[in-house]
Amino acid sequence: MSGDVAAHAARAAAEARPEFGAFFLARFLDLDISYDDEARTCTVVLPYAGHLCNPQGSVHGGVLATVMDVSMGHLCHRFLSTAVTVEMNLRFFRPLTGHGRCTAELLNAGRKLVHLQSRLTDDAGRLVAFAAGSWHRLDAKDPTPR
Ligand SMILES: CC(C)(COP(=O)(O)OP(=O)(O)OC[C@H]1O[C@@H](n2cnc3c(N)ncnc32)[C@H](O)[C@@H]1OP(=O)(O)O)[C@@H](O)C(=O)NCCC(=O)NCCSC(=O)Cc1ccccc1
């Protein structure tokens, strides 16, 4: 790890709080998280950084998965309730070699399960990756006593 990256990681760790938008990974990746309250969407911008790349020189797929997961989780938290990922399906259509921007939207909000999608595009607006995920609401009431 270069000194710059180590300093960046240390700063992110020092500034991190266990809150939406402020936890360590959001800080380390320099995510810009915003919402459209009318459309009920969450947009996350991922600035390009060389240390996030795989050996082929494009942003690592795991980083993209993290960012898309963040977009769906923050959407749930903002418009429904805090929730956790149950499953996520991802497709990568082209390598990302610059900034990424993904927008998550609701497909169906059930009382317990929420289904969402997130589309990630590059600076030219080209579709880089698509994710679909299911989330479990943590405010869901279990009607069956255990
Ligand atoms: C190549 C393919 C898999 C299949 O392509 P097809 O569906 O048959 O479509 P097509 O051939 O039309 O290509 C589409 C566009 O892509 C462009 N392009 C293609 N190849 C390259 C290239 N090498 N470099 C630059 N650009 C390339 C190509 O020019 C075209 O653009 P254009 O329309 O001309 O402007 C494509 O879907 C893809 O790259 N997906 C993203 C995969 C990805 O990024 N996964 C996540 C990271 S993996 C990871 O991190 C895991 C890991 C861990 C550890 C170590 C290593 C790895």
TrEMBL record:
It holds the Pfam family 4HBT. Residues 56-128 form the Thioesterase domain. The keyword Membrane does not apply. Transmembrane segments: none annotated. It comes from the Bacteria. InterPro entries: HotDog_dom_sf, PAAI_dom, Thioestr_dom. Keywords: Hydrolase. This is PaaI family thioesterase.
